[in-house]
Every structure is written in C-alpha cells, then in structure tokens.
Amino acid sequence: MSWPITGIGALASIGRDPAELFESLCDGRSGLAPLRGFDTAKFKAGHLFEIDDRPAPGVDAPGRATRFLLDAVGQAARDAGLGEDLSEVPVLIGTGLRELRSLELWWRDGAEFAAERMHFGTALRERFGAVNTHTFSNACSASLYALALAVDQLESGAAEHVIVAGADSITESMFGLTDAFQLQPPGRLRPFDVNRKGTILGEGAGAIVLSREPDGHRGSYGRVRSVGVNCDAYHTTAPDRAGVAAAIRQAHERAGVKPANVDLVMLHGTGTPLNDEVEVRAMCDVFGEHAKVPLVTAIKSMTGHTAGSAGVLSVITALQAMSTGRIPPVTELDEPTEEVRALRLVHTTAATGHIDVAQINGFGFGGLNAVAIVEAVR
Hints:
Elements: E1 3-12, H1 18-27, E2 33-34, E3 47-48, H2 64-79, E4 91-94, H3 100-109, H4 120-128, E5 133-136, H5 142-156, E6 161-168, H6 172-181, E7 204-211, E8 222-231, H7 241-255, E9 264-266, H8 273-287, E10 295-297, H9 300-303, H10 310-324, E11 326-327, E12 344-345, E13 351-352, E14 357-364, E15 368-375
Parallel strand pairs: 4-5, 4-6, 9-10, 9-14, 10-12
Antiparallel strand pairs: 1-7, 1-8, 2-3, 6-7, 8-15, 11-13, 14-15
C-alpha cells in the first residue's frame, strides 16, 4: 500500500516555506553566514546555517526549536485543509536535541524557561489542541523514523491523518563539541568532494501530512510507498556500509521496487570523509549495474546539517522535484570523489528530469539508518 501526502511545511536558513526553500535550492543559494547567537571568541569556527530570527546579533532567545516546529506544522496542516484543530491528529516529531538550547540559556543566563517546555507536546497542545504527540530523538534519521511509525499507524487504521515533523535549533554545546573535534573548521560544507573537511550544522523544520485518502479537491503531493529502518549499532559515530545497504534494500522490498525503478535519490550527504564514502559505496552495492539510473543529489551544502529535520526536508524536496521536474544540485563540489563518479550526481547547477519514484536516505549516530520511498501522483 501507499499513503498520500496531502500537506507540506518547511523552513530553513534559505527559505521560510517550501516554495521559497525549493527555489533557493534550485538556484544554489547557501544559508551559511557568520554566527548570530554565540560568542565567536569562544570557538575556532565562525559560521553556521542559522535561521535569522533572533532579536539582535549576538542575542539568543529560548524556544526557537519549538517556534520552528509550530511554524512547519501549521503550514502543513493548513495546506492539507486540517486547519488549526489537530486534536484528532497524531503528531510525530523527529529531533536531535529538542529544546536543549533553551535549557542552556536558562542554566547559564537565567532565561525564563519552564521544564515542561522541553517537550514539544506542550506547545503543540496549546497551539493546535494536539494531544497525541510523540517525539523521537533518533539523531539525524529521526524524522524518517517518525515517518515509519506514521505509515504503521495508517496501515493499522489507528488514524485518518498523521503529521510527521522534524525540528532542530543549534545548541552551543553541540556546536562546541564539533568545533573541538574539527582541528581545522571547514569553511564550506562540501559533500562528496575530495577535499571535504566535515559537516557544518544548520537549523530547520519540516512537516508533512499523511492521510488515508487524499482530499478530492486538494489532491496530494505524492505517496509514501515504504520506510526501511534498522539500527546496526556498529559504532557510536562511524556508519556501517552493510547496515546502510540493508536499510536501502529493506525500503525497496517493502515498496515493491527494484533499483532500476528509482529515478531520484536524495543522499544524506553530510560532507564528512567517512559518511560520504560509506553512503556512496552502499549505494553502489545495492544498485550495482543500475548505479547510474537514478539522478542523485543532496541539500546539506545549502541548508547545513539540520539534524532531526534533515530527513523530512529531503522528502519535501523530492516531492517538489517530482511535481516540477527540477532537481536541486549538490553545490560546493569542486572535485567529486572517485566513488561518487559511479553515480549520476547532480552538481553545480540544477537538472531536469521525469521523477516517478524517489528514495530518501537518512543515517544517524549509532547506526540509526532510515530510507524512505515516495512516488509521484500522475
């Protein structure tokens, strides 16, 4: 079976709604900018992919991840015709750090922040009346894990509509951790480039509405065919080629597709030396002689690594590629690696193509692998 996506919502450093975000991606626009919320004197690195919504440069405020989430969920709910009342709709959220930045500001600066605000469910209940909310902190694949549960809920008949979302704001502790590990901070996020130096964090939120049946007047953006998930637990941070390949194969099997049927792959593409190499080699393992059949791309060179929201933002990008025939490029790619040359990579400028089936990859620390298959509605 497959399930229609009837509403979408998104925001990131390069756009405050899905249309603006997609246009920025196709134009190759980057959201990388000097630090806005942290003291630059404390760190070697000085740039992030932040959403520019703080009250003043260098002045941070609590609750930003929640605001991003509410914005994306509201966009998607309105787009699907659900309005502002989500009392009967499960909301499943993937995140890396929830409201940890707010906790930092409370602990260090005495910012006003109540403990119950750590849970997204509080704000979702107040804003939308949502009472059935669940948060998944499955690292960078979190929102695709949430999508897997949404599919289960629809298949079981437990809900008529499910909202799947992801949201993260950058915390100073996470930024400090990456800054400490990167002896030479990367000046750019360069997925699949020979000279890639590592990832750069980004902020963002995305949401999609899945329904048992599309609204006859609104239609749908596409349909979710399957989500494959596993936890190979190979290493705390290093990905496992076999685990990644197994998640891809599971998604294909559940969707009833073969590698030759896939027209587009949204790669995870973090720009780290090991992750990019493992992902591409796992792709070649699965696709074999069909490795050059799908177009492949990734968006983090323009949005940064948006953690828990990364998967759902890539789903939304794939849906828009299906409807427009435009595929955003991987930017900041000067010299592709030998491994990635085995794939049909879209880079430097946007491409055009007919997309019926798309695959979305999401891989997180601890071997938390998730792969989604979506199809166009023609």
